[in-house]
Design goal:
By secondary structure, the protein is α+β, with helices and mostly antiparallel strands. It contains 13 helices and ten strands.
Length: about 375
């Protein structure tokens, strides 16, 4: 009787909840909800900030947020809206914020801002009780009693003191309503559990309401991060080598694919995601080899193929392939050098004639690269003989 293959365990159903908005903000500042580094930086305009605050004040819906509960340690931000975030001990389950960063950054910044010498901060916000609108201020002067600084709204003692300064009872009632709206506003929250980081990457790309996909580089940066290693910094180092050769600013994804190929995987997204499984010494070694091979590949493209910048390449991936070719050439030379060394140190074995085969390896690899590139380059780009 044929045994049925074991079924893959499905993740638990997403868990919906409706916590208070200020509770979620407190959890972020306490480090219980974490912003992974593959999130975008804060990009909202001042008007978008005011619009969100107005929606909360009017009890309008502002959308849901998405969390991923995991004990996996990813690169995460240590600040939000210029506010420091506490750290939890490693190994603890945390909730990574997958969707809602701009909105929660706005809430944290507006309600908990601490002046740091910049009066034009986007978080220097007041609520005008007379007009019923939010405004930015550009100074540290004490506002009139009818303008309530939002950073004091949830400070019970400060709220009472400022409320007493308001003479009009109707305006006082409006201030109390504002307090209650922010203190009790609930936000729809969905928490994902039992999902791998690969699945989370796909989820992030599909639900991101801003239309900005999670790039492969950002995803792998978070997956490989440690306190002493940042993949994006390593990619920037490779790009800097090529910039010094005036070859242009290349897409970081091309360099990431080159690293994956140099490490022995391949060029596809699935191959590239494998680098997160490499021990850090192996990953750093692959990055260093990629840097050296990329430098030689650009020299070859400029001098032999006459492509003076990355803009003249029909496809960016061609550079990643060529980087791997030159890495293989370097490995072949290393093997030849090792063979020569063993031959010189051997007293019984005849000397190995490795010089010509080594040159043949270089020549064959260079010829294949030129043929591949020529098939895809415009006819107006001339080739010179090697």
């Amino acid at each position: 009787m044929q045994r049925s293959s074991p079924r893959r365990q499905l993740p638990r159903d997403p868990e919906p909840s409706t916590p208070r908005l200020v509770t979620v903000a407190d959890d972020i500042l306490a480090g219980r909800i974490v912003l992974p580094k593959f999130q975008r930086e804060f990009v909202w305009s001042r008007q978008q900030i005011l619009n969100l605050l107005d929606s909360v004040a009017r009890n309008y819906p502002i959308g849901s947020i998405l969390l991923w509960e995991s004990d996996q340690e990813l690169a995460s931000e240590r600040a939000i809206a210029d506010l420091e975030v506490d750290s939890l001990p490693s190994g603890r389950h945390v909730n990574y914020l997958l969707d809602g960063q701009q909105r929660l950054s706005t809430i944290c910044g507006a309600l908990y801002w601490e002046p740091d010498g910049d009066p034009k901060s986007p978080w220097n916000i007041v609520y005008d009780l007379t007009e019923g609108t939010f405004h930015h201020r550009d100074d540290f002067e004490e506002p009139p009693p009818t303008q309530f600084p939002l950073r004091f709204l949830l400070d019970g003692a400060e709220f009472v003191v400022r409320l007493e300064r308001v003479a009009d009872e109707e305006l006082k009632q409006r201030a109390r309503l504002l307090y209650n709206r922010f203190a009790n506003y609930q936000i729809a929250t969905v928490t994902l559990r039992d999902m791998s980081i690969e699945e989370i990457g796909l989820v992030f790309e599909r639900i991101n309401t801003t239309g900005t996909d999670l790039t492969l580089v950002e995803f792998m940066r978070a997956a490989t991060w440690t306190p002493d290693f940042d993949l994006l910094d390593s990619i920037d180092e490779i790009k800097e080598v090529l910039r010094r050769k005036r070859y242009g600013d290349l897409d970081p994804k091309v360099m990431l694919r080159a690293i994956a190929a140099t490490a022995g995987f391949g060029y596809s997204r699935g191959d590239t995601e494998q680098i997160r499984k490499l021990p850090k010494p192996k990953l750093k070694e692959a990055i260093e080899k990629t840097k050296e091979a990329a430098s030689r590949a650009v020299d070859f493209l400029v001098t032999e193929i006459r492509t003076p910048s990355s803009r003249t390449l029909p496809y960016d991936t061609q550079l990643a392939i060529l980087v791997e070719v030159f890495d293989r050439i370097a490995r072949s030379r290393s093997l030849v050098a090792l063979a020569r060394s063993r031959s010189r140190n051997s007293m019984t074995a005849p000397p190995l004639r490795t010089q010509r085969p080594g040159r043949n390896v270089d020549r064959r690899a260079a010829t294949r690269s030129k043929r591949t590139l020529r098939r895809s380059l415009p006819r107006s780009v001339p080739l010179v003989s090697a």
